[in-house]
Structures are given as C-alpha cells and as structure tokens.
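Example record

One chain of 579 residues, shown exactly as stored in the release files.
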Amino acid sequence: MKSFTLKNLAIAALLSASMGPALASNYYVVVPVPNRAATAGNILISLNGYSLPSGVAGRAYAGFDFNSVLQVKGDPSYSPGSVRWSVAGGALPAGLSLSADGKLSGTPTAAATSSFQVLAAYKTKAGEQSYQVLVADVSVALAADSAMPAGVQGAQYSYDLKSRLTVSGDPQYTPAQVGWTLSGGALPTGLHLNSNGTITGVPSAEGTYPFTVKASYLSKTGQQSYQVIVGAITVSLSGATLPAMVAGSAIPAYDLKQKLTISGDAAYAGDGTGVNWNMTGTLPAGLALGADGRITGTPTATGTSSIAVTASYKSKATAPATYSMSVGANVKDNGSYRSWSDGTYAASCVAYLSPSAPYVYSGATGDGVYRVNMSGTPTDVYCNQTTNGGGWTLLVKQAAGDGVTLQGDTTYWTNGTTLNDTNANQNRNNGNFVSAAFARMSATQYMLQASNESTVKTYSRSASTPQYAFSDSSRTLRQDPNGTSGTLDWFIHATTYPQGAPLTVAVFGVNFQETYGTANGMACGARWGWAANQDAGTSYVGTFDACGGLGAYGEAYGSSAMNGSKNAWQPATLYLWAK
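Predicted structure tokens for this chain:
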C-alpha cells in the first residue's frame, strides 16, 4: 500500500510541475496518509524544484506563484492561506519581492543571476527549496553620424534616429517603446524631435547646430551628440546695360529679377516674392522701378543715366548692381508735322536725316512736313528725304501752266514773301507755294526738280539765305548772243518757239538775265530756267526774246514769240529745294 501511495505521489508531483506557472495559482497537492489521524506530527511540507522565469532589468517580472510547487501531506483540512512564505537564504533579484501568499513579483532593476531559498511554513512544519532567477541586462546605444544631411532653409527636413539605435538583451523589444528626448544643445530653428525618433520640420535660419539626443528604453538610456548644418541663403544681383530706349516710346518692361540669383532657400519660388528692391540714382524721366523689380514707363527726354539697385531677401541683401541706360529720340509723327520723339526739333531736314547721338533717323521717317528749329524759330517745312541723297527743304513750288504768279520780278523773290505756306500746301501736289524757309534758312546746295523729269538740276554756292542766292544782287547778267544750242531739252522740250518759229540758240542757267546786245534793257531771264533766240539772219541776232522755267521774267517774257502768253513755256510743276 505504501509503495502504491508513493507512486501516486510522484505522479501527482510531476503533473503539478508540468502544469506551469499559468496554473500554479490554481493547484496545490494534499496527500492524506492512510490509517493516520491529522496531527501536527503527521504533516509533511515540501517544495518542488522549478526553473523560474527569467527577467529583464527594467521590465515587470512575469511573476511566479510558489504555491504551484508546494506539497502539503497529512492534513486533509489544509488551507493555502495558512502557509507562511519567506526567503530563507540568498537574495532575490533587486526589485523583486516574495509576497505573503507565495507570489514572486516586481520589476528587476539590475542584471544578475540570483540564487535564493524559499521557505514555506505550515503549522509546525516547513519545507524549503533553492531557486534561481536570471535577470538579463538591456543595452541601449546610439551610434554617431558624422554625415547627417544638411538642412536647406525652406525645404522639408527629415532624419530618423532609429537608424542609429541598437537595443539588445530584450526579446520583447519594439521601437515604439523607446522614448526620445533632447538632452543638450538645440535643434535648428524650425526643426523638432518627434516621439518616434525622427527629426522633421523646415529649417528657417542658417548656422551650425550641435545637440545631444537621449534614447530611453526600460531603465536604460543611450546618448549621442549630433550636428545639423543649415546652409546660408545667398542673394546676388548682376548689373547690365539696358537696351537702347527711344523718347516717347514705351519700353518693354525690363525685369531685374532675371539678374537676381537666390540660393539656399528652397521656399523661394523664383518669382520675386519676398524680395525688396532699393534704388539710388535717377532713372530717365518717365521711367519707374516697381515693387515687382520691373523698370517700366515711357522715357520723355534724351540722355544717359545709371542707377544702383540692391535686392534684399529675408535677412540677406545684395551688393549694389549698376544698370546703365541711354535714351535717344527718333522721328515721331505728331499728325500735322514730324519732330523728334522727345518733343524737340532738328535745325533742318538734313539734321533729321543725319543726326548726332542720341538722335536717330528712325520711326516716322520719309518725305513729309517736319518742324525745324530755324534760326531759333520753330518752322514747319516739307522735307524731301529720298531724292538725291535727301535732306532737301522745299522752298518754292511753281504750278504747271502758271508763268505769272511766281515770275521772277515779284516780291516772292525780291522780299521773300510767303505764299500758301500752310501744312496743307507743303507737299508735291501741283500748285504755287513759297516757304518761310526761303528767307530764313542758310543753304549751300540747291536742287530744281520738274514733275515731268526723272533727273534733277543742282547748283552749289557759298552759304546764304536762298532769298539772297536768288536775288537781283546775286543775278548774272549776260549780253547777247549767249547760248549754245537751239534745243530745249529739260523741262521744256522744243525746237521752235510757241508761235512756231525755229530756235537758233538757247541758254539754261541759275538766276540770270539776258540783255539786248547793250548793257541797257533786259530781254528775258529766269531765276532758274531757259532763255531762247529766234532772230537768225536779222539785225537782232542773239536777242533773247522768249524764256521759261522757275521765276521767268523780263521785257520779252510773254512776247509775241510766246504767243503773248507767259504760261506758254511752263509745261510742268517745278520744285526748288535747298540744304
């Protein structure tokens, strides 16, 4: 019977041990002894050996209930609450304790292998057993990083410190259990350390920022120093010479932002937002520098100028950049007359055609009415800018078929009286016209143009007013006979007089008068034209008794040889030009 009992006891003990700590609080073994009364002397107390759970320093211990390995024999009325528990020898791991009801619990605070004896006392009996708890050490380390990414102002920054973290000694470790703190220094302005160990944000100030980070896990910490460099914002502005401008013409907007370079700030969009522009010096009249960095407007005066501009962005500013400008003027059509686009006037048609800087012959160029500053008086004249080198001023226009209005002895020639001198008559249409320029301008070159000819006649002399050049005092007197041919081959094309008699001799000249063979008496002449003679075989050979052209006049002008008509030899419009 005893052996059977011992066998059963062994089986019960093994069954109890195999159940594990999870069931330890629910089972204990009481073995009655047959044929014996339950007295203190018959009670047996024992503790079975057991491999206790290991612990991790800093982590709450899994716990163990020693009631699961307790055996009480000989007392059917046994109650677990009557057992007294204590550590009889050795020492529990630091941070653990054995409770009065036989439970081992707590949080180990240090790594160690702790051996100790547990004593279970019941009534007058006691059982004791040796146990051991292994507490593993946790290691937390942060590795250095000498190449942390640099920060760029205005750009998102992200760095994960978990890539530098090593935690060992705890199989249950997860990164989410790590605490992160900044233990020294300061992060760049705009960055922050997150609870998950990442550094994020947008840096907003340049500099070198050393700092120290601490990673905490259980009771252990790891600490490391790091450094983030945030690059400086640089702002530079290059100068330029702006394209040539023309007074009176709006310039294409010149954008200084094309000369601006901002680096080190990813937030800068390149559109000038946040940039302030400052200028010293003076822009050409009519131009302005806007807050958007563009020079706009319409220059109103010629000249050269330069300005110095600085651009500032955030806390940075450029060195002054120089911008040079030149404003010229070209020909502007004002409606009834042309002038320089800056509102001033050239001194002559030639001065418009071949000006000196800053004026240029461009814009509303060509033939037409120009306003010239003639001897200090603004005067509207018709300029021929295309014929024979251009630069010619229209002085006189004689209508076709009219040999009377502008004949050479009228006040238009002798006094410079104007005729039809309005803008409406300053053209190449047929008509009679005398410009104020005839008496005002100074000229050395003259040109006679006929509407029926493709060629022109020219004449040069010393400088004077045209009125003087074509006055009686400048006139050439010729004594008959004075001619070379009986053919009139320019403006007047004839071999006979208007009344049909053949020509014997003819002369073409500038401001001449033919006499009768003596120094007395004026036969026929012109301010610029022809005189002809038909008197071959008579006592009046060489007497010029008919003429035509610009300003024809004389005693024989309009004689019977001309059918009594001063208009007979005026077949086309004549134009007198000067420069």
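Notes: The chain is about 5% helix and 40% strand.
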